[in-house]
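To illustrate the input format used throughout this study, we show a single complete record. The first block contains the structure-token representation of the backbone; no residue identities are included at this stage. The design step must infer an amino acid for every position from geometry alone.
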């Protein structure tokens, strides 16, 4: 194999000489104030090359103190104090200790100590797991994470294979040795992750399209069916970025899962799983099909199970054989060996790269066969193939590496993204996945992709009874919005339909809304991906990263932070008879706002609320500025010229818009741009400053349309941009402002402006016209309750007038704001709000006075939240 981007000769694998302390059979390397490498080698020879886990040690040398005498060696970094008895050989509890200082005191580690409170890592697959329980009742064997409440962690790199200058596997060094990396961090978990990323490499940024919607189904799709599917997505105005083709894209001779019909090939594997030749009965002209997909701005990934080598029926068998000087006279299959450079070079050159030239964008590497390389026992095939495929993708040109694969162990965070496999369709599986996804961040594996909706039913469920619950799927899609990757997938079962239009109201409405929200959040998500690259802190991360001193941060694993500003607790239980689901959430100390900004909550305890199907427990830090795309996007292939800056209540806040070309490795070379945005809110004015764009990249814009949304801000007396007063407009227009009564927010449209200039927005308002807290929540609950009442109303008579008006409060408010002159707008709004509040308070009594059944009255009151 030729040298790759990751593996070209690199002197950074060796540490700076000034960071090392070598004494005979031992060497200590101070990598950061919290991280020290400890080596013992019986022959006094130490390893400086890259390993599976560690690829970079040439860090800036941190300050440390070294003291020693005839017997003892001491190293002190300020955080760590290491003590070693000189000349005593292999590290043991008797001759080596590290004392960790942290805010809560100190802890001392010695070789052989075990952690009592590791916070968990991840596992290669959720195949056949119902939550964390397999079909035989056993629990998911989670690997350890890099962080623990013990305040330290040890990574043993002794048994790792090496990587040479071409990125190829190197056997472990001979002789007895120890190669240990000690992390001491107390409760500063993010510092530990940052230190690991510094030596093990950052999480690469995936291409931008990865964060869009992926359509995947194990189905023997034909070319024409997929074109019809794509047309339906377009007709329904549902954005889509990736088409995933499962195993049936290629010929599958002998494939069957029916009892008594299974076949094995000459390698002892299930027949038909491995394949590289398009099934021409399904795809008569594969290149034309993929050309159509690219014309729709769709990316294509194909499933690979490479374990059975290359069979003689494959179109490229002769070319592969020629490249390997393989005798074809007997038509013998060419066996697989992933660590064979000639085999893998021939596989890429003769089979996979030509398919990429036809239109395959990246590979779904579905390794499920023997765990270790036959040529290098102990080397995980999963780990190794992830490395080889990812780095091969970067060999030519400047595109970002991308594969779709299973977790292979520490170091695999460098090769995104993962898929978690065939989980069981159940509420239990849904409830486990938030915890599983966030916990994987503890090993920097920040890009899990789940089978949204679950993959397969419990085996004990008869086939005629296998149907996906619409509510379960809608809630799973809502989790998908706040997951690293939004990808639906399922087993080959006719009853498993996950097309959004397959579900009627209210479930289809919730599914459509979830997909739209995902695309609106794309700039926020993409900026968080850059943050993960820079810091080692993933997009989805546990609560204890931010509040490690609070027990509740550990006790509620089903909720997590989504980026720096959003707390999410996806609902994972069905609604009750009243149409709502109780879902308590722990809110950390401080003030939090609902996603629409209309409600504030004081944190530091449990929030006991119920949620309708279209509600997701989403909470935002005060003052946050969320960058959003406008609705109506078709895909993420291109960036719209409009950015919405959604500003939440709070005294101060800021964000940085992040931009790059979305496709190349230029972001690693400084080819990106950031635009800082600051918000400051006082009693009588709310100021938002959009700074000039700093940095550039190929294709960077010169102009952009900024739309500023000030949530829960009331009606302003005036709105100014760069000192110029804007006029009010009842409809969206550049260079104007309006008040959106459906969201209770001020929307300021700057129009198309230069990104190289700064822009100041000031909304001035009188405090007496601020809306009462919780107004929007009450308006929406009233609308929901009135809709419910109309469905169950059994009388020919009309609903009471005050009930009708309360149910359309947003429309009533909009009339009050839009009709009339500017001078009385705030007063009209305030009067209309007061009228609604009076109606809302009287709603139970208004309905109680009607002849409707008592059960429906109770249902109405429950919908109101009374």
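Output of the design step:
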């Amino acid at each position: 194999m030729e040298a790759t981007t990751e593996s070209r000769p690199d002197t950074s694998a060796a540490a700076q000489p000034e960071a090392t302390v070598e004494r005979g059979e031992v060497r200590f390397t101070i990598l950061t104030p919290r991280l020290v490498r400890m080596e013992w080698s019986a022959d006094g020879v130490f390893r400086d090359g890259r390993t599976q886990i560690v690829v970079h040690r040439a860090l800036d040398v941190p300050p440390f103190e070294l003291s020693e005498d005839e017997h003892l060696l001491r190293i002190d970094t300020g955080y760590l104090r290491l003590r070693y008895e000189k000349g005593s050989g292999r590290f043991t509890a008797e001759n080596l200790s590290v004392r960790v200082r942290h805010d809560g005191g100190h802890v001392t580690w010695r070789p052989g100590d075990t952690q009592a409170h590791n916070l968990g890592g991840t596992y290669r697959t959720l195949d056949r797991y119902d939550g964390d329980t397999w079909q035989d009742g056993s629990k998911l064997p989670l690997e350890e994470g890099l962080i623990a409440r013990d305040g330290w962690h040890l990574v043993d790199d002794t048994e790792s294979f090496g990587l040479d200058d071409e990125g190829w596997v190197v056997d472990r060094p001979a002789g007895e040795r120890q190669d240990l990396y000690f992390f001491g961090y107390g409760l500063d978990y993010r510092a530990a992750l940052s230190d690991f990323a510094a030596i093990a490499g950052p999480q690469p940024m995936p291409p931008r399209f990865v964060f869009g919607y992926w359509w995947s189904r194990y189905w023997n799709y034909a070319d024409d069916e997929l074109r019809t599917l794509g047309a339906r997505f377009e007709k329904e105005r549902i954005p889509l970025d990736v088409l995933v083709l499962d195993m049936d894209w290629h010929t599958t001779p002998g494939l069957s899962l029916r009892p008594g019909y299974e076949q094995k090939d000459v390698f002892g594997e299930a027949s038909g799983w491995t394949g590289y030749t398009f099934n021409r009965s399904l795809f008569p002209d594969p290149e034309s099909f993929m050309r159509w997909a690219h014309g729709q701005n769709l990316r294509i990934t194909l499933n690979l199970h490479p374990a059975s080598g290359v069979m003689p029926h494959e179109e490229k068998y002769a070319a592969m054989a020629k490249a390997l000087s393989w005798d074809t006279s007997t038509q013998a299959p060419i066996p697989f060996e992933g660590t064979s450079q000639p085999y893998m070079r021939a596989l890429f050159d003769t089979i996979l790269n030509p398919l990429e030239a036809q239109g395959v964008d990246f590979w779904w590497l579905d390794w499920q066969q023997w765990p270790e390389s036959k040529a290098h026992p102990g080397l995980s095939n999963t780990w190794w193939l992830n490395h080889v495929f990812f780095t091969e993708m970067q060999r030519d040109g400047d595109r970002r590496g991308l594969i779709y694969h299973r977790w292979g162990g520490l170091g695999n965070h460098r090769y995104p993204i993962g898929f978690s496999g065939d989980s069981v369709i159940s509420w239990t599986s849904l409830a486990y996945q938030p915890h599983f996804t966030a916990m994987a961040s503890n090993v920097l594996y920040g890009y899990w992709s789940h089978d949204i909706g679950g993959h397969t039913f419990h085996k004990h469920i008869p086939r005629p009874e296998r149907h996906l619950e619409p509510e379960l799927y809608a809630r799973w899609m809502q989790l998908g919005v706040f997951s690293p990757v939004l990808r639906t997938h399922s087993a080959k079962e006719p009853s498993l339909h996950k097309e959004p239009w397959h579900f009627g109201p209210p479930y289809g409405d919730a599914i459509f809304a979830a997909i739209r929200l995902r695309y609106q959040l794309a700039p926020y998500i993409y900026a968080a991906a850059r943050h993960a690259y820079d810091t080692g802190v993933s997009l989805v991360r546990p609560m204890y990263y931010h509040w490690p001193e609070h027990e509740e941060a550990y006790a509620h694993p089903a909720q997590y932070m989504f980026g720096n500003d959003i707390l999410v607790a996806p609902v994972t239980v069905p609604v009750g008879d009243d149409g709502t689901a109780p879902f308590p959430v722990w809110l950390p100390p401080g003030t939090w706002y609902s996603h629409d900004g209309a409600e504030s909550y004081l944190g530091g305890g449990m929030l006991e609320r119920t949620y309708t199907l279209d509600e997701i427990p989403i909470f935002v830090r005060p003052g946050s500025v969320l960058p959003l795309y406008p609705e109506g996007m078709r895909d993420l292939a291109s960036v719209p010229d409009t950015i919405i800056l959604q500003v939440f209540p709070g005294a101060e806040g800021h964000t940085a818009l992040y931009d790059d070309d979305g496709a190349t490795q230029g972001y690693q070379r400084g080819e990106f741009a950031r635009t800082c945005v600051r918000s400051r809110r006082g009693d009588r004015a709310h100021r938002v400053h959009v700074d000039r764009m700093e940095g550039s990249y190929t294709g960077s814009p010169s102009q952009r349309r900024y739309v500023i949304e000030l949530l829960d801000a009331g009606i302003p007396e005036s709105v100014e941009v760069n000192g110029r007063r804007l006029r009010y407009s009842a409809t969206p227009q550049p260079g104007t402002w309006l008040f959106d009564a459906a969201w209770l927010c001020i929307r300021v449209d700057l129009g198309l402006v230069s990104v190289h200039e700064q822009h100041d927005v000031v909304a001035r308002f009188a405090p007496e016209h601020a809306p009462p807290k919780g107004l929007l929540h009450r308006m929406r609950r009233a609308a929901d309750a009135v809709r419910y009442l109309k469905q169950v109303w059994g009388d020919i008579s009309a609903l009471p007038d005050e009930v009708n008006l309360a149910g359309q409060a947003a429309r009533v408010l909009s009339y009050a704001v839009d009709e009339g002159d500017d001078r009385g707008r705030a007063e009209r709004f305030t009067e209309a709000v007061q009228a609604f509040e009076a109606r809302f308070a009287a709603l139970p009594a208004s309905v109680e006075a009607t002849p409707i059944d008592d059960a429906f009255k109770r249902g109405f009151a429950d919908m109101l939240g009374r």
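Structural context for interpreting the output: Confidence is low (pLDDT under 50) at residues 1-9. Residues 362 and 675 are 31 Å apart (CA to CA).
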